[in-house]
Amino acid sequence: MVHDANNLTKIKGLNRWIEEKLNHLELYTFLQISNLTEVDVETITEILEIAPHRIDDEKWILQAKDLVKN
């Protein structure tokens, strides 16, 4: 595990399995999630084989931005 990694499961809708998959994609922090682009979201959705709009519907990016602020 990366030293500065956040517990990504604090993002509602993101479970341990998804966190592990994101870590394999070198995504470890709320800051990284908060800076995802539309292209990133599409790529992650395809790689994780999750519903196409799940990241947007569950507001992962917005939640991550809020967690970065706190």
Give a quick rundown of the structure:
This protein is mainly alpha-helical.
Can you tell me about this structure?
With 70 residues, the protein is mainly α. The protein is built from 5 helices and no strands. It has helices spanning 16-24, 30-34, 38-48, 54-57, 60-69. The protein starts with 15 loop residues before the first helix and ends with a helix. The model has no long low-confidence stretch (mean pLDDT 95).
Give the key terms.
70 residues, mainly alpha, 5 helices, globular
How is the biggest beta sheet arranged? none
As a percent range, the share of strand residues is: under 5%
Structural category? mainly alpha
Rg over CA atoms, rounded to whole Å, is 11 Å
Mean pLDDT comes to 95
What sequence of helices (H) and strands (E) makes up the elements? HHHHH
pLDDT < 50 stretches = none
The helix content, as a percent range, equals 55-70%
The number of helices is 5
- How many individual β-strands? 0
Quick one: overall form? Answer: globular
Distance between the termini: 22 Å
Write the layout of secondary structure elements.
Layout: H1 16-24, H2 30-34, H3 38-48, H4 54-57, H5 60-69
